[in-house]
Description:
The protein is mostly helical. It is built from five helices and two strands; from the N terminus they run αββαααα. The longest helix is centred in the last third of the chain and has 15 residues, at 103-117. This is Nucleolar protein 16.
Amino acid sequence: xxxEELSRHLGSNYGVIERxxxxxxxxVVIADKDAILDNKPLPTPxxxxxxxxxxxxxxxxxxxxxxxxxxxxxxxxxxxxxYGTQYKLMARDIKLNYNQLTTSQLQKKCEKYQKCFGAxx
Length: 121
């Protein structure tokens, strides 16, 4: 690939590293600083089946599911049923809040509880 051809596909301050089959660097070609990105960069095909598999997995990712342990669920559920969203009162209840969580810790856990189980006060 010529330097002019690379300049059309690469933006300024970008380049291509050319390697031999063993992986040794042959040369580094840097695009001109005045180059304008005319076309989209050329796609590079995956070299191994493993890389192709990883690329397919990356395309299929979905949003992570939110989980809450049974202990946290029962702990927060009791506090949430009694106090709703009054986190300061939750923090002061020494019988139900036996782990002595702070108001911000309780608020985060209650928000997670609401997202997991759809609870509303």
